UniProtKB/TrEMBL annotation:
It comes from Fodinibius sediminis. Keywords: Metal-binding, Zinc. SUPFAM superfamilies: Composite domain of metallo-dependent hydrolases, Metallo-dependent hydrolases. Zn(2+) 2 binds at H258. This is Dihydroorotase. The lineage of its organism: Bacteria, Pseudomonadati, Balneolota, Balneolia, Balneolales. Zn(2+) 1 binds at H103, H105, D320. GO terms for molecular function: deacetylase activity; hydrolase activity, acting on carbon-nitrogen (but not peptide) bonds; metal ion binding.
Length: 431
């Protein structure tokens, strides 16, 4: 063998050995290189330096929060900025679970013959949700068993907001005017079959706006709620059915909305000396959920202030959002939560009412918290300091010095509201 052929042979052997070793090691090399190619960051988005309030997990302190895809990947004291593709400085702000409005009217549509159930009395959820830190809105019975599929197609499927619903015990849903509700529009089997058809959308059964002495609609709604293992939502305007009897028949977990409203002909939650009625305290003790349901005419300081002074704060802050409440005293859910900050409820409790307690009320334990691995529905709030006025349904004002504002809202990991461009690049830096 000449020197040339020997060297050539050795080179071939060396090449083969190197090639085989590299081939064998290829999977390991790829695993090491992949994060470099894809970006080594563990998080798509990092909220850095904020004060996290997560009532479900008992967190009320400075924490960072990392998001990967649609989920919350990590909540920890100090997450290095280099681990995220994008970092947002949220120092001085509160990072809380995406808020849940358990009482709104969002079956909007263009039919002039209809009001709340497909007409102009209801409003688009996306137009009001994210700017108030809300990521989940629950419709309060605009649709019944006859038109729920229309509601789903027209609103739920068209909205970026997570829209859930109480199904109305009346088949046509929330029609305009109380006088047109008909007993033959009630069908428990059809209501239950609609719940079975849309179990992820329908969170409970609603009764309300029925004038009359009959217990039939209430009992039908309660039975439907029982048989579907979901809460009953009791809205106002059942004036001839006394409040004490209603609360007595309701089950723990059922929801009593317009709790602080001086609704005509309905018994008050207070007695003549402004003391909380004993049956109200009992109902509360049993676990009936007290929702604000502010609306256009259902929240009054004559009840809310004495109740607050006696320690009766709402569990949840349902807005009763619709065309006739949005520009009145109600405004939005953060305005109601700010009202309760002014009435003495602690921030932590107010946030709980807007998130975890609301999630529990609609039996959706997957929402309303900041669990690692949970859906990245998040609100970043600012407590503004200054002079603010809060107005009830009677046109009365109380003055406060704090107001909650939504700086940033994140829905399934996507920034869907950014009040002051915290996530945007400065224009000057792009020149
Ligand atoms: Zn309502």
């Amino acid at each position: 063998m000449t020197m040339v052929s020997c060297w050539s042979e050795m080179r071939n052997i060396l090449f083969k050995v190197t090639y085989d070793a590299a081939k064998a090691a290829l999977p390991a090399i790829l695993v090491c290189l992949l994060p470099v190619c894809a970006g080594a960051q563990s998080y798509d988005l990092l909220l850095k330096g904020g004060h996290v309030i997560d009532p479900k997990n008992g967190i009320d302190q400075s924490m960072d929060l990392g998001i990967k895809g649609k989920t919350i990947a990590r909540v920890a004291r100090d997450i290095p900025p280099g681990e995220a593709l994008k970092v947002i400085d949220v120092s001085g702000l509160y990072v809380v679970p995406g808020l849940i409005d358990p009482h709104a009217h969002v079956f909007f549509g263009s039919d002039p013959e209809k009001g709340f159930n497909g007409g102009a009395s209801s409003v688009s959820p996306d137009a009001f949700s994210f700017r108030s830190g809300i990521t989940t809105i629950v419709d309060a019975g605009d649709a019944g068993w006859r038109n729920f599929p229309d509601f789903r197609k027209q609103v739920i499927e068209q909205s970026d907001t997570r829209v859930l619903a109480f199904i109305n015990i009346f088949g046509h849903g929330l029609t305009s005017g109380s006088g047109i509700y008909k007993m033959d529009d009630i069908d428990i089997d059809s209501t239950l079959s609609m719940v079975r058809r849309y179990p992820d959308d329908i969170v409970g059964v609603r009764i309300g706006h029925f004038l009359g002495k009959s217990w039939v609609p209430f009992e039908a709604a309660l039975k439907s709620a029982q048989q579907s293992n979901r809460p009953l939502l009791l809205e106002c305007h059942t004036p001839e059915l006394s409040l004490d009897e209603l609360l007595e028949r309701m089950r723990p977990g059922d929801i009593f909305t317009h709790a602080f409203g001086a609704v005509n002909d309905r018994l008050s939650i207070l007695d003549e000396e402004d003391k909380i009625q004993s049956y109200v305290l009992e109902a509360r003790e049993q676990g009936i959920v007290f929702d604000v349901g502010h609306g256009g005419g259902s929240f009054h300081y004559s009840l809310a202030v004495p109740a607050s002074e006696q320690g009766l704060f709402p569990d949840t802050f349902g807005t009763d959002l619709h065309r006739y409440s949005m520009n009145g005293g109600m405004k939005d859910m953060l305005n109601i939560m700010s009202t309760y900050l002014t009435l003495g409820q602690r921030l932590k409790e107010v946030i709980a009412g807007g998130s975890w307690k609301a999630a529990k009320a609609i039996q959706r334990s997957d929402l309303g918290h900041l669990d690692e691995g949970g859906v990245a529905d998040i609100a970043v709030l600012k407590v503004e300091k200054g002079n603010f006025g809060y107005v009830d349904s009677g046109g009365n004002r109380i003055d406060g010095n704090k107001k909650l504002n939504a700086e940033l809202t994140i829905r399934e990991g996507e920034i869907v509201w950014d009040q002051n461009g915290l996530s945007a690049k400065r224009w000057q830096e792009n020149q």
